[in-house]
Amino acid sequence: MSSSDSKFLLGFLAGAAIGALAGILFAPDKGSETRKVLNEKAKKIKDDLQQDMNEKIDELKDYLDENVEEVKTKASRTAQKAYDKVKAKKAEA
């Protein structure tokens, strides 16, 4: 996760916590209503975070898939070069 993504996530969580606290402090509703509203907001925040995390996980998987293929290709080329050199040395001997 990049630094900007981490900062965004931290800011998002801080904003959600501040919003929830302000909602509790300034709520004119009964306690049961306030708890219901907070529960709904917490569920929304959880769902949003889960969606964001799933997107980031998908991006990471794509990134890893691309790089794994590149590493495999380079390793294969290197192995072939090493094999060719060994074969050439055997032919010299």
Provide a brief overview of the structure:
With 93 residues, this protein is mainly α. The chain has two helices and no strands.
Describe this structure in words.
It is a single chain. This protein has helices at 3-25, 31-92. It is mainly alpha-helical and 93 residues long. The chain has one domain (3-92). The two termini are 52 Å apart.
For this entry, give a set of tags.
93 residues; mainly alpha; rod-shaped; 2 helices; single chain
Number of β-strand runs: 0
- Number of discrete helical segments: 2
> Based on the structure, what is the oligomeric state of the protein chains?
single chain
Low-pLDDT stretches are none
Radius of gyration (Å): 27 Å
Helical coverage, percent range: over 70%
Which outline best applies? rod-shaped
Query: How many structural domains can be distinguished in the coordinates?
Result: 1
